Amino acid sequence: MLLIFNITVYIISARGYIIPVRETKTGTEMNERKQKILAILNQGRLDIKEAAADLGVSEMTLRRDLRDLEAKQFLVQVKGGAVLCSRGFEPKDGAYQVRNIHMRIAEALLERIMPCQSVFLSAGRTAFALAKLLMTGRAGRIKVITNSLSTAAVLFHSQCQVILLGGELRSNSLDLIVTSAEKMLENYSVDWLISGCDAASVDDGFYTADVSLANLETKSLSIAQHVAVITESDKFGRRAFARFATLQDVDLLVTDDGLPDPAVRALRAGGVEVLQVSSRR
Q: What is the pLDDT of residues 165-220, one digit of tens each?
């Protein structure tokens, strides 16, 4: 009779991530190369070309390993590479479980606005994806004001200086709203306001379904030197309850290439800079 005892070994990374590696008497499920990949990610963003050369494998082999590690929620693939998944708290209901498109939009935004010293980071999945990138240290000791408990948790132990606004907890997400949060904003000034949206119109601007959140975001416009909206193209043409920004309020839109050319031209004619990322991996 062959008895196989399963043992789980945990690697504690330099950033405090707990990485489980399952071992049995018949071998290790996470091979040495994947452990080296995680070691590279502990130092920051992994670049496909550089990592493939360092590991002595083809880019195709490395991408296969990255897909496997992404499926196990160790990392998130971004354009040309990967970043570690946060091992901090995230909402259990999946509201902020980010997809590759959110990471690509967030990365394009970060490349566009850097160098930057301070941001107001609002709620939403794409804004949450940006927090994951900031967590890797790519923006250095940037100051982040947020009303999102999820964002603040992701940035815990990062290089960022995080200022969490007070207020009432929303019933459907881990975001803080209402007058006390709005009053706190009066004490600050930021380089960029970064917000998602629930709906958008090339004629009327950007909307959210929550009127209290809309009031907070409208108030935050006044403290920002520049305003960016980050959202998927399918939000255009939808309707939501409360508008928080007109086209004249917004300097930059980062979205995917699903936005039709006439809409892109209309936005640019309205003074909005439009950046688009591929909707395909």
A: 877 776 666 666 656 667 788 889 999 999 999 999 999 999 999 887 888 899 99
Are the CB atoms for 99 and 124 separated by under 8 Å? no
CB distance 195 to 230 below 8 Å: yes
Q: In this structure, are residues 167 and 94 in contact, taking their beta carbons and an 8 Å threshold? A: no
Q: Is 88 in contact with 154 (CB distance < 8 Å)? A: yes
* Residue 27 CB coordination number (10 Å): 8
Q: Which of 5, 38, 47, 39 is nearest to 22 (CA)?
A: 5
Contact 93, 173 (CB under 8 A): no
Cα separation, 264 vs 144, whole angstroms: 29
- What residues contact 31, with CB distance under 8 A and at least 6 apart? none
**How far is CA 120 from each of CA 35, 168, 225, 270, rounded to the nearest angstrom?**
35, 18, 11, 24
